[in-house]
């Protein structure tokens, strides 16, 4: 089967990913609804997106769709299950550089959403004792010491006694 993905979206009830694609054999636009099973507000969106992308029934259709896009769609579904509105969830995803955002200016609900995203990222990157690449006492040397900011406290003591 040869198809080209055109658009992706979600349906909240039942939680599903919707794909609009063009069937290249017939040149017709088609819609495929892919239910997201065993998904809750505590699910890992990255793993769920990978699972859907590599699902035997859907992988031919999702060939042109990136895992990042599927992860964003799963995040919308998860936020909906958490009671976060679609507008708030989309606004949270629009933030380009999370390091530049001032979290002190956010409302309580938006802040909770950002914290949930940070917790999810932490859990995804966390190394546990049973992981194959786990190292107990990992020491890392950062090569570029020239970029390190200096502080007046780091300077040697002056002759004034201060």
UniProtKB/TrEMBL annotation:
UniProt keyword terms in alphabetical order: Cell projection, Cilium, Cilium biogenesis/degradation, Cytoplasm, Cytoskeleton
Keyword hit for Cytoplasm: yes
GO biological process entries: microtubule anchoring at centrosome; vesicle targeting, trans-Golgi to periciliary membrane compartment
Any single Gene Ontology cellular-component annotation: spindle pole
Highest rank taxon of the organism: Eukaryota
InterPro entries: CEP19
Compartments reported by the entry: Cytoplasm, Cytoskeleton, Cilium basal body; Cytoplasm, Cytoskeleton, Microtubule organizing center, Centrosome, Centriole; Cytoplasm, Cytoskeleton, Spindle pole
Predominant location: cytoplasm
Matching Pfam families: CEP19
Family: Belongs to the CEP19 family.
PANTHER family documented for this protein: CENTROSOMAL PROTEIN OF 19 KDA (PTHR31539:SF1), CENTROSOMAL PROTEIN OF 19K CEP19 (PTHR31539)
Name of the molecule in the record: Centrosomal protein of 19 kDa
